[in-house]
Predict the structure of Peptide/nickel transport system ATP-binding protein.
Amino acid sequence: MSADTDSRQPSSAPGSEGVGQPILSAEAVEVAFTAGFAPGGGRGTARAVDGVNLDVAAGEIVALVGESGCGKTTLARALLGLERPTGGRVVFEGSPLGYRSRDLRSYRRRVQLVQQDPTGSLNPRRTVYESVVEGLRVHEGTTADESERVAGALSRAGLRPPERFFARYPHELSGGQRQRVVIAGALILDPEVLVADEPVASLDASVRGEILRLLLELRAELGLSALVATHDLGLAWNIADRVAVMYLGRVVELGTVEEVLSAPAHPYTRALLSVLPDSEASEGPVVLSGEPPDPKQVPRGCRFHPRCPVLASGEAERAGVADLCTSADPAVLGGGAQRRVACHWSAADGSGRLRADGPAAP
């Protein structure tokens, strides 16, 4: 598996021995946008997130992977309380998330966002100190130990000595340093969960590994949990305990990183993995035809079937599930730690059987 660095330690990962009590959960979460607000425009209702169950346990890192437009960012925003679900609910430490200002204010101290583009998320007119302290002042006002807490957050984010960075502006920093400032701004409130949306996508390859290692160190030192949305399966392999593969608003495969990335069961996951430089796929790279369907017009049956190479090659027909693929929607996957896949072919006997322990449906 290609990666900038392989600093993950599977033997100590929570996901390797099953997930404990979830700290953050999506329970049948749906997010729909009506005409005029739907991504891409046009008429109708876009089901950006279409029934997702996903748990993040204390001290666990979950990677949410898939192509652009699959719903990763919308789900992340829903988990942050930035997007209110049109169905289902977000649960934090066993209690449903409330959407009153007071509830969200309290929640956002404990669940923090790490954005994709540090250059865009940092105000160019603010110093590093002003950017990092902003969240603290919003939630607590000016405190006597403000400078000490800013220094501590910068230090934990790997910017040492921290005082050296206080008066600097974003344009005076490297891309990796700017991302560390963004992370420090999240850490200053001592959150329990980080939600990171493509945290290294805008960085040079030479510094991606440093940021990934930092996230792992924060998990080890502070017990942080994290949901990392990414299209990069190499990143998922190096940082995650579990992987959720998302396609057109649904999680279609879920399991530990070793289960999903070493023995993918869903044709979509197989296709994503096959194009990695060191892929061991026997059939070579699988190029998916077309683009993901419009979320305002989700295909009947399995939502992946119009692009599915297994259906197109006749393998699904030989396994006796071709009609199901085009007419029956696979069950929405449950959450938890159990290995799951939403695919008629993978659940069938013969060449399409699920190549891992655990059921194909909830």
